[in-house]
Each structure stands twice: as C-alpha cells, then as structure tokens.
Amino acid sequence: MSAVATGVGLAVPGASAATELTTGTAEGAAPVDPAARIGKKGLRHLDQATRLALCAARDALNAAGLMTGDARLTTAGGGAPTVAAELLVPAESVAVVVSSNLGNLDSVCEVATTIAADGGTRLLSPVYAPRLSSNVTASEIAIRFGLRGPNLMVCNGPTSGLDAVHWATVLLAGGRARHVLVVGAEPANDVVRRLTGHAHPFDGAAALVLESAAAAAERDAPVLAGLDGYVRTGSLAGCVTALGGVPRAWLAPRPAPADVLPGVPRHALEDRWGPASGALGVLQCAAAVGHFAAGGSGPVYAVAGTDADDAVAGLVLTAPAGAETGNGEGRA
Amino acid sequence: MSEHAGWPIAGTGAVAAIGRSPAEIFDSLCAGTSGLHPMRGFERSYYTGDRLYEIDDRGDAGDVPGRATAFLLEAIAQAVAEAGLDERLGDIPVLVGTGLRELRSVELWARDGVPFPAGELHFGTALRERFGATMTHTVSNACSASLYALSMGTDLLAAGAETVIVAGVDTVTESMVGIADRLQSVAPDTVRPFDLDRMGTILGEGASAVVLRRTEDPDRPGPGRVRGVAVNCDAHHTTAPHAGSIAAAIREAHRRAGAGPEDIDLVMLHGTGTHANDAAEARAIRAVFGPAPEKALMTAMKSMTGHTSGASGLHSLIVALRAMADGLVPPTLGLNRPIEEAAEFRIVRDAAAPADLALAQVNAFGFGGVNAVALVAGRR
C-alpha cells in the first residue's frame, strides 16, 4: 500500500517550512499562536492539541489544493457562524486520520480532580464536555473543514504518527477515500510533563495530505514525496531489517544506537523539537518532504519507537519522480 | 475474495456487566437481566445519577487502574481460543477500538497518585506482553470505535492478511460520568431506547473481540461472516447526530454487502436512550427501510448492558451472531411508548422473540459524528 504526499502544513514553534525541520530548533522559539493563525473564534472550547491541529490541517489542505480560504469562522449578520473556506473536492472523498496520545489528558485530569476536590460535579465547566472523548481532534477537524470521509483517531503510543500514515494508505487502497488528511498533534502542559517526565515536550502539530499517485496526477497536484513499505515490528533492529536496503538518510527515534544504519545521515527530530509522542511520525514525514524539497535524495526512512516500547514502526519515503537521485545529501 | 461473500468469523469473545462470555451475555439479554447497579468505582454521593452498568470485579477495595486492559485481554483470549489460534500472536494484526482508552487509570494517577506509565495508555504494551503481538493498533473512535476497527480489519483482509483480530473495550471514566451529571437537569433512572420518556444514556463497561479470517477453515466452521462495513463522518456537530449521514452509512454498508433493506432480518440498534441519538437513528432507518419495515426485527441491547461505548458495536455484532444461531432476538427493556419516528418498527419488547434470521445489520454512532454500520451473516 503506497501513497504520495501532495501537501504539508505545520504548527511547529520555530519552524515555518518543512525544510527547516531538519535544521531548526524549538529552543527559544515563541509558541504557536492558533488564534493568530486561524482566528480566535471557535477556539475557546477546544483543547491545545486540537487548536494546533486545526492550524496545520488548514495549511496542508490549502497547500494540496483541496481547499481555498483561511477557514476562519465568521458571523455575518448575527446568523450561524460560517467557515471562510471552500472545499474543491467532494466532502465524502476526504478522510481524516489524526494521531495524538496526550491531547485530551489535561482535560480529563482537570475534571476528575475537580470532582474529588469539590465532592461533586457542581464546579465543572461544560466547556470540557467535548474534550473528554479522545477523538475530539479528529472530529473537530472534520467539522471545521467539512470533511465527511472516514474519520480516525489513532492513539497508538510512540509509533502512532507512522501508524496513522499507514491507515491513510489503507483507506486509499480500500477505496474508502480519494484523499486523506493526516495530522499528528501533541500539547505541552503540566499533565503531559508529569506523566512523561519530559520538561520540554513538543507543543505543535504537523499535517500531510496523502492520495494515490493516480489521484494526484488526475488533478495535477505536485507530488512532494512517495510513501511506502510500512512495517511495525518488535525491535529497532527488526524494523530496519524489514525496511530493507540502505537509505540516503533516516529520521531516527531519539535513543537510537550508533550501530543502527551506521554511516547513514540521521535526524533525531526530537532533539530539535522535543519529545513528540503521537506527532512524531507525521513530523518525520513532513521533514522528509522538506529534505526532498531542499534537493536531498531518497529513499529516506522514518522510524518511530524504541526497544523500550511495545513496537517500532518504519516507513520508506521516496523522492518525487523526476527529482534528482544519487547525490543530494551525501554521506556524513 | 469479494467482500460480498464475507469474511469468516472464526472466534468471538466478550465481557460486560451481565456476563463474562458471549453465551452468558446472550442468555442474560434473553432473560431480560439488566446490569444496572449502584456505582461501584466512584463515590455515589457526588452524583445525582448514581447507577452504572459496571463489571463487578473489584470487591470492596475501591477503584484500581488497568481494568480496561484486563477486560480487553480477557475478550481477546476467548476469541483466540474459540478460533483455535496459538496465543503467541506475533505479527497477526490486533485492532482495538476504544472510546476512553485507559483514561480511568490516568484519572486515578492524577487524583490519587496511583502509578501509571504513559506507555500503558495504548493497549499495544499489554498485547505485546500477553500475546507477543507487535502489529497492534489502538483507535480511539468514541462509541463507534470497534466497528470502525472492524472496517479497518476487513480492509487488511482485502489487502491480503490471512488473520486479523478486531476488538473493542471501555471502562467508565469519572470525568465522563461527571460532566454528564453536570449537564443533565434530571439524571436518567435507566436506559430506555426509543421510548418517549427516555432520559439519556448511562455508561456501561465491557470488551468484545472477533477473529476474522481471509478463508474459512473447513474443519472449524465459525459463527458467521462479516459481509461489509461502512464508515463515515457527519462533519456536522459534536453531539448532535446527522440522520442523513447515518442513512448514507447504512446504504453504503448494504452496497458493500450486496444486500438491500429487504434482506435484513435483524437490526442491532445503536439505541443509546438519548433524545438526539434515538430520533436521528430512527429517521435514518426510515429513510432507508421506509416507515414500517416489514421484515427486520430490531433490538437495543444497551437497555441491559448500558452504553459500552467503544466496545458496543462488536458487542452488538456478537449478540447478532448468537441471535442468528439460536433463532432468538433479545428484548429491549424500558421501551413502553415508542417515539413517533419508530412507532412502526418491529422492536422486540418484553420477552425474547423466536425468529429465523440470516442477515443482521449492526449500527454504531459516536461522539463527533463518527458513524459505522456493519452487515453480518449467520452460519448457514
């Protein structure tokens, strides 16, 4: 099962373009301001991961040419709010697959501790209601942009972002959608810091539009990368073996031993952007798109998960057809 | 193999408030046994609605973490055993649909400091430990999660997989119960699907699992076949379901199975007992089946198990398999005066109804407008 990427969107502190994902850093960068990016209206009742996801998703849909407009909510003449955007393909043809492990944890914890502290539910704010179901991010994206295809929320641990990309290719292969918006989003907040033990977790989102090569060609959409060869195995060594061959570069999980893919240039994105949990795999695919856009050659491997986790997932990203191969980023 | 012939089901497993196996659950349903009980895991005095459909596994020890994981493993082990699979699952895909993951454990961690590693939020960690499974996927798709996972499983079979395990699981979170309690002006006394006096839903707990095969083992005939699964999204409103979108999912499931409304013998209703769900579900069924479906019997099992959320779609599917095998449809409790939209539906009430059944439709709709509809055939 394979697909091509035709659009990328980022809501990453410190990176405004995919080409910066392997060179920039979140250190010292200002947080993403979702209200400035997509308008304040409609954000109040949403959690941080969903706000970030909406920004990245909007940009990916625009970049892929599936939608025009900035998708801000407007209220004209006091009526129901409308979304300033137009979908250019049938609503049923676009699926949404979101990956996030930690997105709604702060809301869940806030409500549970408030009940215990007060000895009842009197003090609970109804604003939390939609955030207590883990699929809030995927469904809010569908509602904002009017995407009526299959809507999946993948919460699958450290590999979750690459798993989400895999399920997008399954949806395409099975004919359930012609285009899939894949989003990885994670928030930084005190609950996440305490649960994961990470002082500076990723606070952002990355989005991709995936479709079949034929669907992209049919609407003359520029291809940014090819995606293929997903594997999920019990170990890092097993994953790299299953991916096969030797890539030109690889996007590595943070604690990857030096003897794995020796000599192949590696980008441990979490060193730059913080532990990214369910967003990592999507961020890696966006980084591969940036690598190709900057003239880098393929194939590039994306690998998420370590031997300390339940599994390690991998994906092969290839340079768009017609791009230079064989030179680009040399051996380090 | 075309999807019209269907994917063989080789094994089933289920746990709920009213039973610890598919047979126990089915017998309880047919006997009209409800799992509704005063809250076991939470402090009753905090809530105006103080009853739930919990599984009674904690004794008097208060609440403990990891219960969703334990129920999931129990249901999968049952399904694996019935299918005659080795428990070392290796790279056999295991797809788990859930609404609330292990969020109850996160609540206990946040509130009481009960240790909880982040790696146990998704079920892959426990599935690796117990079954050696590495191709595991946790999908958090609210109340249609297990049928969504079923659609993904059938797609993997279509793409060449030989065996796929699909499961659903949920336990009740205090945050979800609490916010419902806060928003309801009057707490529901029980779940009354499609009744004029329905007052809302009440959560239940449980897990459900099926083993699907690409081809049937002739020496081991299973309980039925999955004929087709449709999924879509309303893209309309977080909590207000959209009848048109649900109807589209029903039609798509029929199309995938090569069947029409006239072929359906049994509809396992989503039937949560909320005003919005039951009205929208009834309107969607009318749009596809007409206002007075002559053939299809219907039932809403949440009146006895409560809303088992992510597990509920497969719970309904497994009950449908039993109903077709035994020729018996469990009743819907609490349904005295049907809503106008469903007035001419043949919803089984009061007592289990004998019937000759070959093809069932299973509905599951979730928070955020995620709809899934499956068609399942009994063994013939």
UniProtKB/TrEMBL annotation, chain A:
Output the Pfam families linked to this UniProt entry: ketoacyl-synt
Domain Beta-ketoacyl synthase-like N-terminal residue range list: 28-187
Listed A to Z, the keywords are:
Acyltransferase, Transferase
- Enzyme Commission designation: 2.3.1.179
Superkingdom per UniProt: Bacteria
Q: Membrane-crossing residues? A: none
Q: What class of enzyme is it?
A: transferase
Q: Name one GO biological process term.
A: fatty acid biosynthetic process
Tell me the GO molecular function terms: 3-oxoacyl-[acyl-carrier-protein] synthase activity
The record's section on InterPro entries has: Beta-ketoacyl_synthase, Ketoacyl_synth_N, Thiolase-like
Q: What is the name attached to this protein's record?
A: 3-oxoacyl-[acyl-carrier-protein] synthase II
Source organism per UniProt: Streptomyces echinatus
From TrEMBL, chain B:
User: Can you tell which superkingdom this protein's organism belongs to?
Assistant: Bacteria
Q: Name one GO molecular function term.
A: 3-oxoacyl-[acyl-carrier-protein] synthase activity
- Identify the InterPro entries for this entry: Beta-ketoacyl_synthase (IPR000794), Ketoacyl_synth_C (IPR014031), Ketoacyl_synth_N (IPR014030), PKS_Beta-ketoAc_synthase_dom (IPR020841), Thiolase-like (IPR016039)
This protein's UniProt keywords:
Acyltransferase, Transferase
**One GO BP annotation here?**
fatty acid biosynthetic process
List, alphabetically, the Pfam families matched: ketoacyl-synt (PF00109), Ketoacyl-synt_C (PF02801)
Pinpoint the Ketosynthase family 3 (KS3) domain residues: 1-378
Q: Sorted alphabetically, which PROSITE patterns does this protein's record hold?
A: KS3_2 (PS52004)
EC number, as in UniProt: 2.3.1.179
Q: Which family does the entry's similarity section mention?
A: Belongs to the thiolase-like superfamily. Beta-ketoacyl-ACP synthases family.
Q: What is the name listed in the Swiss-Prot or TrEMBL entry for this protein?
A: 3-oxoacyl-[acyl-carrier-protein] synthase II
What is the species of this protein?
A: Streptomyces echinatus
